[in-house]
Amino acid sequence: MDTRIVVVGAGPVGLMLAGELRLGGAEVIVLERRERPTTESRASTLHARTMEILASRGLRAMFGDLPHEPRGHFGGIPMDLTLPSRFSGQWKVPQTRTEELLGRWAVDLGADVRRGWAVRAVTDDGGQVTVEADTPTGVRTVRAAYLVACDGQDSTVRKLTGAEFPGWPATRELLRADVRGLDIRNRRFERLDRGMAVAARNPQGVTRVMVHEYGREVPDRSAEPDFAEVSDVWKRVTGEDISAGEPIWVNTFDDANQQLTSYRHGRVLFAGDAAHVQMPIGGQALNLGLQDAVNLGWKLAAQARGTAPEGLLDTYHDERHAVGRRVLANIRTQAKLLLDDASVEPVRALLAELVPAEHNRALLAGMISGLDVRYPGGPEDHPAVGTRVIDLDQRDGQGLLAVPGRSFARLARPWAGRVRPVSTPPLIAHGDAVLIRPDGHIAWVGSAPHRARAALTRWFGPPAAMADNDNPEKGHPSGH
Ligand SMILES: Cc1cc2nc3c(=O)[nH]c(=O)nc-3n(C[C@H](O)[C@H](O)[C@H](O)COP(=O)(O)OP(=O)(O)OC[C@H]3O[C@@H](n4cnc5c(N)ncnc54)[C@H](O)[C@@H]3O)c2cc1C
Questions:
Q1: How far apart are CA 52 and CA 390, in angstroms?
Q2: Which terminus of the chain has a smaller tally of CB atoms within 10 A, N or C?
Q3: What is the CA(48)–ligand 1 centre distance, in A?
Q4: Which of 286, 288, 291, 338 should be mutated for ligand 1, with most atoms under 8 A from CB?
Q5: Does ligand 1 come within 6 angstroms of the Cβ of 12?
Q6: Whose CA is nearest to atom 5 of ligand 1?
Q7: C-beta of 283 in contact with ligand 1 (< 6 A)
Q8: C-beta of residue 269 within 8 angstroms of C-beta of residue 144
Q9: Cα separation of 418 and 420, whole Å?
């Protein structure tokens, strides 16, 4: 059986996925166009759910001490992100560092990361995927059972497959620069008469300026703008002259908001920015992508190894497309609140009153942090099904059967290597066993052993002893 999976793109999502696939026992090749990791300044926020996942994989310590900010904002309206989680709030870590650490983890687990490979053709013949890439030694071909496109917002694979990618094209742009030698005051999402401005000076004396001019058309850009353009717009919006500053980095981003209709096209799947493009606001883009990877990894690895029950892989699209749609909607709302002209002020004023009310605040904080993600269960499932379990060690990437007693522990034996029994304090209710997926979400809760077996089969495939005997349950998820 070909358990090989090609991941296109060694950004944070591709590297997280590579590690997850290795934990699931798949053979992984990551093809990355860049010869060296990027040094570009990008996302800097990890949210609570991502931190919980990193902790469950034993990766929290590797990140060391991180600056922590309990507050955040919704469309520039300040709000507290505190929720019941060991990691609530925002954790500041440059994306370059996140990539470096995830890359090291994936390689240590055995992922084969090939740099300087620019994918240019993908063919899915129904039985396998053939990938063609330009490499320093010419055009090379790799064959695999599956391919996952983690090649970012301008995804080559998305274009090659012609995947439908509906949504809203960009109508608003932000110009951004890191500048040395500026003596201007800090501004936090300041909405002025002509636009919105942010300025933040770091301890090294570099000021990040970010500016949007209301109503300014999004130019057709083939390259990043020069600093003169940034300082012109900054002058018009704030009245300040920053043209004498020394730019270190200049960049733009916009409010394009698009999501693939389907995250799976045969043997080709999509994750991260390749699957959904959104304005990078409040750090949700990166976190959404990392959580795509953690949802997909164990399912795809099981599929490639032949242990996955029928339909498991398709739950990736079902679960993550719905989460993505909701996040993209909140990001689009925030873009309007932040970047529309004075006509949006009445909406902002109303929200500024609504957001601090505890119910609303908790709802928004749950959405922004990813802590409220709940995958849908069946009508007869326990209400906790689909929610996350925290503070469990899943660094081996296995599912867990949290058991109330020894007899239940024996029950998981035929799924050894896929599911590990653990005795924990009651997670849900005394006497109940809890089946936990490798991504930390609850698959089943109950006390009847035959239902536990059915749930194990439904999520982790047939028991080992039966797998060789053409198990009649295989391919027929048994429900509850
Ligand atoms: C310029 C920029 C600034 C951003 N700023 C912020 C920010 O301030 N805050 C925030 O929260 N988010 C920001 N984001 C968004 C955030 O960086 C992304 O959400 C995150 O990087 C998504 O990770 P990814 O792995 O899906 O894609 P990427 O990080 O884009 O990684 C994709 C990888 O695929 C590789 N690749 C592309 N095509 C090919 C190919 N044909 N063959 C092989 N490899 C290929 C690329 O080289 C890249 O390494 C920014 C994004 C960009 C592009």
A1: 7
A2: N
A3: 21
A4: 286
A5: yes
A6: 42
A7: yes
A8: no
A9: 7
- Tell me the CA end-to-end span of the chain in Å, nearest whole number: 30
User: What's the Cα-to-Cα distance from 352 to each of 326, 349, 361, 367, rounded to whole Å?
Assistant: 21, 5, 11, 17
Q: Is the shortest distance between the CB of 149 and ligand 1 below 6 Å?
A: no
Using alpha carbons only, give the angle 404, 395, 465 rounded to the nearest 5 degrees. 60
User: How many CB atoms within 10 Å of residue 350?
Assistant: 10
Contact 389, 427 (CB under 8 A): yes
Whose tokens are 């060690």? That residue is 393
Rounded distance from Cα 258 to ligand 1 centre (Å) = 15
- Mind listing the pLDDT tens digit for each residue in 370-421? 999 999 998 889 999 999 998 889 999 999 999 877 767 788 999 999 999 9
pLDDT in tens, 121-172: 999 999 999 999 999 999 999 999 999 999 999 999 999 999 999 999 999 9
DSSP state of 379: T
Q: Which atom of ligand 1 is nearest to the CA of 34?
A: 47
Distance CA 384, CA 428 (A): 8
Please work out whether the CB of residue 454 comes within 6 Å of at least one atom of ligand 1: no
For 39-75, how does the pLDDT look when each residue is reduced to its tens digit (9 = 90+)?
A: 877 888 999 999 999 999 999 999 999 999 999 999 9
Q: Which long-range contacts (CB under 8 A, 24 or more apart) does 347-352 make?
A: 348/75, 348/76, 348/77, 351/74, 351/75, 351/77, 352/77
State whether the beta carbon of 43 lies less than 6 angstroms from ligand 1: yes
State if residue 13 touches ligand 1 by the CB under 6 angstroms criterion: yes
The domains of the chain, with CATH numbers, are 4-167+258-369 (3.50.50.60), 173-254 (3.30.70.2450), 380-480 (3.40.30.120)
